[in-house]
Structure formats: C-alpha cells, structure tokens
Amino acid sequence: MKKLINSVDEFVRESLEGFERAHGDLVKVNYDPVVVYRADAPRQGKVALVSGGGSGHEPMHGGFVGRGMLDAACPGEVFTSPTPDQMEWATRTVDGGAGVLHIVKNYSGDVMNFDMAADLAKEAGIQVTAVVVDDDVAVKDSLYTQGRRGVGGTVLLEKLAGAKAEEGADLAAVTDLARGVVANVRSMGVALTSCTVPAAGQPTFELGEDEVEIGIGIHGEPGRERIPMEAADQLTDRLTRPVIDDLGLTQGERVLVFVNSMGGTPLAELYVVYRRVTQLLDQAGVQVTRSLVGPYITSLEMQGASVTILRLDEETTRLWDAPVHTPALRWGT
Amino acid sequence: MKKLINSVDEFVRESLEGFERAHGDLVKVNYDPVVVYRADAPRQGKVALVSGGGSGHEPMHGGFVGRGMLDAACPGEVFTSPTPDQMEWATRTVDGGAGVLHIVKNYSGDVMNFDMAADLAKEAGIQVTAVVVDDDVAVKDSLYTQGRRGVGGTVLLEKLAGAKAEEGADLAAVTDLARGVVANVRSMGVALTSCTVPAAGQPTFELGEDEVEIGIGIHGEPGRERIPMEAADQLTDRLTRPVIDDLGLTQGERVLVFVNSMGGTPLAELYVVYRRVTQLLDQAGVQVTRSLVGPYITSLEMQGASVTILRLDEETTRLWDAPVHTPALRWGT
Q1: Which residues of A touch B193 (CB under 8 A)?
Q2: pLDDT in tens, A288-327
Q3: Strand intervals (E) in B59-146
Q4: Which residue ranges form the domains of chain B, and what is each CATH number?
C-alpha cells in the first residue's frame, strides 16, 4: 500500500488539518467530536443543513460546506459512519433557530446514527427533519444497506437544498425540496479497479486485468455483475439506460447530467463518458440543460465512473444556478 | 490496460466532444486543426492568451479557456506536442488586434512548434510574444527538455496573465507580468505509480511495490531519484525544501501554495501534503496567503502529487483574486 499518509490512525485528522489550513476563510474544523462547519455558523434565521458519512469520498461532504450548500459535515473514519455525538454537536452548532435538515445517504450505520442524533437534538429543543438519499439503481439490499444506496445524487441534493435554505425558505419547504430531488435523481457506477482502505492495507476486492464491476458501490461493495472490459460507450450504455428507465424520462424533459470520477479516473475519460450519456439522452429527446463533470463523490483511488441524472424543473434549475461558495463547488461569488 | 475510452485513435477527439457538450456556453472546439477556444473569441482590443501541449494533463490547458484565463488551448495527442498549424490557427482566431501571448511549457517539441507558429502569425501581421515556463526544480536537461521542465507553475501563470489581459493591459505589460511569474514560481513532484499512455498500452515505467520516484516529470520522465516509500511528511519535505531554497524565500514573504494531484491520488491525501508544506513555510516565517489544492495538471491516472510555490506581491495577489470563469477554475462570476 503506497499512500501519501503518515499513519493509518492520523490520516483523517491530518487531512482535515490541511483542509482547514487551505480553506479557513470558509470553514472551521472541530476535532472532538470531528465536525467541519461554516466559519460564519450559526446563521440566524436560516435553515441549517447537516450531512456526513465515512471519509474517503472527498470532496464529499466537507468540501461542500459553505455559503449556498452545507452548514456542517461529519466525517467518519474511512468508509465508516460518523457517530451520533458528531451529528448532534454539528446540529447544535449550526442551528440558527430555524431548524436543521439532516441529509443522510442510505447506509444502515448512517441512518441509525443520524436518527439517534436527531432524537438528542430534538430533546434539546431543536427542530430536525431528515431526508434519506437512495439514488443508486444498481442493487437493492446490499452489504451496507437496506434498500438502495445513496451515491452521486447526494451532491446535487446538497447544492439544491443549500440554495433553497439560503433563499430563506423554512424547514418544511427545504425538506420538501430535498424529498423532491430524491424522487427525481438516479445513479449507477462502474469500477475498473478496487481501492485500498488504509486500515485494511490491501485492496477491498480483486478485479481481473480485463474485468470491470457494473453497479459498484462507493465502498467497493458488490454491484450487479462482473463483465469483461468493454469500450467506454458500451459501458456507459450499461450505466445510463437503467438510470433513464428508472427515472421514467420522456421526450421533452430537461435534465442535469453528472459524470463523476470514483477517484482515480482521469478527467479526459470522464468526458468520453459524458459524450455518450448525452448522445443517449439526445436519442430519447431529453434536453441536457445543466452538467457537472469531475471527482465529487469518490472512493479513494478507485478507477471508474458513475453517471447521475437529475430531472430538472424551473425551480431546481434556478437553485442549481444560485451562488455557491464552498471549497469544492463555487460560482456566482 | 483498462480505460474508459473507445479507441486509442479517437480518445482525444471524443474527450473534446464531451468537453464541448458540457461547456459549450464557455468554449468551442475546432477539430481540424484541433483547438479549444473561447466561445466569445476574438475579444476586440484584449490581449489574447494561447497555450497548448500534449493531452493527458487535463484539465490543463483546455479547462482553463474562458474569461480571465486563456483564449485558446491547443491539445496534442497524449503526451505529444501540438503542431504549429494548431497554434497558428488558434493565434489567428483569438487575436483581437492587441496581440497574442504564447504560454509555452519548456519541452523541446512545444518550444519549437510555438516558435514556428509565432513566425507564421507574425508574417500575417499579428503581434506575438512568448513566455516559456520552466518551474520544475527537480532536474535539468531531461528526456523531453533542455533546461528545466514546465509544470504546475503554468496553471498559476495562466490565471495571473489571463487576469492582467482581462484588465486591459497591453501585450508588453501582460508579457512582463508573465515573465515575472516565471521568475517567482517553482515546483517539484513525486510519483507513487506510473501511468499508461493509451497508444503504448503498458505503463510508461516500472516502479516497485514499495518505491517512489522523486522529481517525476508530467510525462513519467525520470526525476532525481528512486527511494523506498516514506511517510507523507518526509516525502513532502523532499519536494518542498528544494522549492523553498530555489525560490530563495525569506521571512515575511507571502506565497501561494499549490498542491496538485498527478491524477490518481485522492484529494484527502493532497490535504495531508498541503498541511506539511504549510508547516514548513510557517517554520521559515513565510506567510501562506493563497492556496490551490486539487488535480489541475495531471499525468493521466498516475498516483502522486506535486508542490508548487509562487511568491506573491500586491499585484499578483489582486490578479489571483480577479474573477475567472473557465470549466476548471471559477470564481467571482
């Protein structure tokens, strides 16, 4: 295992120290419990957004803390759920009196711990709602999850709900918006290689020299099938068609296409995938009016990509375009 | 070789097609000769900036085309210099009557071809100046280069000179600014793995399971030495100390620190490196007032990182903060 780390135990903390040094104008890091939060928190009267999950998916979620997106993120150890005390601390710290929305990816540990944190925060008098993201069409009921897993749709939801909260919407309206996003976003990914969790010291799974895993999870958990390597267009079809079908997209609709790197795949390859996704949507008469291409929800150094499609309406288009200023996503400011 | 491509021959073209589909509001792509250029080119009265180089380093350079940065970029095949006809076409297309600055990384092919293109453009009555970036302190006179190689400093120079041109400075002033940046920026990188050029089909070089290459070039060309893997802090010291020394940084000076991924290294590891770079600068009494962390000048899927330090003054700080709107770098708009 060759990684730019000093020790397995200190990896997450040291990475956060560097993150805070680079982005101290936007975020602060609390180290006990570990929480990344907006430097200007709490924002009085604004609904606050808290997310979190295992580390190893950077820039998600800490990179999305800032104006127009998250108020706080709780990083667990690599591929490990954060604890309820992190989430409770975050919730208390960023609440500005208008309540807090928990954005939870659908993994059993995350769901359970956010649930406990919400109970604790409610006991302290804070209004809390939650939305569970389960956009991965690849599999139901896998190693880490009951139901579908939460993947790339989470990034888009955090942007859109963040913009809604920034506009001054109340907790019910921000929660409704977030639930609407969950209903209209789907994803699927492919792995070309495994990744190595530092604490394990060896690859999470073995994949042959000429083999890929279709429907991979962001922790390297199994997908739909292993198949021999194919051309990018064929692989992209295998990811995109189930997403289009599951969304029930029809002619004339508008979408945002998000092509994400699992961490180790070069940007130039992502654009080859993006090209094919948009060709398929052209054929279906669906208009691609917004896009995002790059590494936003990763699995350490895993090679591969995921395709996320979000059905857009007038409101979500406006919220996507709204200003955002975070370490990893920024425009309009 | 597992890559998200359809064919070796069509890789660059198809990637650019996807790029244009994703960023058609900002850039256009001409396919014969291959040039990425601002959708609103030429900008009358503005000095135009043209760069270029082999593909495989994305987002550089095409991702830096847009307001406040480049007017055009000429992508060659993977790790192969673009041709003079690409550069000449780009120069003619983006010239708005105020002249064109060529930003050239110091590789023999790039330098020779930009030279020929400049001669052709001058014959056509266009004012052309050039700046050659040679910020890599690792080695002199290597496989692709006479003198030092041009690496991460190029990204910073393109931002700063782009801002200067956007302000309305004339060709002499933009060229002077660019030369000042070259004099004040230094870099060095480390590779943990090789990368595979599609046309070659196998890794550019072999690196042992527990070995790293200090001073690697962005085409996988040899660096200073191969050593056994070390902790991130030790490796970072090996990159940063020569950079600080070569720049002659002294107490009280201000710098921008740029920690770059070679392509396959996760963001979380880059922040571990960034943490250590800033610790070393703290010790030297040097103030880190700006930063950039992420994959901006890559070598396909190579794992590793590079450290670039730029000495800042009032003008370059202001130019760094100026609005930029490109596919890969955006703020203030």
Answers
A1: 2
A2: 999 999 999 999 999 999 999 999 999 999 999 999 999 9
A3: 72-78, 100-105, 128-133
A4: 11-184 (3.40.50.10440), 185-324+327-331 (3.30.1180.20)
ipTM above 0.90, yes or no: yes
Task: Compute and round to an integer the Cα radius of gyration of chain B.
Answer: 19
Q: Which of residues 174-213 of A touch B (CB under 8 A)?
A: 192-193, 209-210, 212
pLDDT at residue B142 tops 80: no
Structure-token pair, residue A315:
């409101």
Token pair for residue B256? Answer: 């921008």
Measured between CB atoms, which of A59, A192, A330 is closest to B2?
A192
Backbone angles phi, psi at A185, to 5 degrees: -135, 140
Length of chain B in terms of residues written: 333
- CB contacts under 8 A, B 45-84 vs A, are 55-56, 58-59, 63
Active site residue A325: no
Provide the pLDDT for residue A76: 98
Residue whose entry in the numeric block shows the structure tokens 């001669």: B119
Q: Does A270 touch chain B (CB under 8 A)?
A: yes
Task: Using alpha carbons, list the distances in angstroms from residue A303 to A193, A195, A231, A270, A297.
Answer: 5, 8, 15, 11, 12
- The residue to which tokens 């949507």 are assigned: A281
Tell me if A271 and B16 make a contact (CB, 8 A cut-off). yes
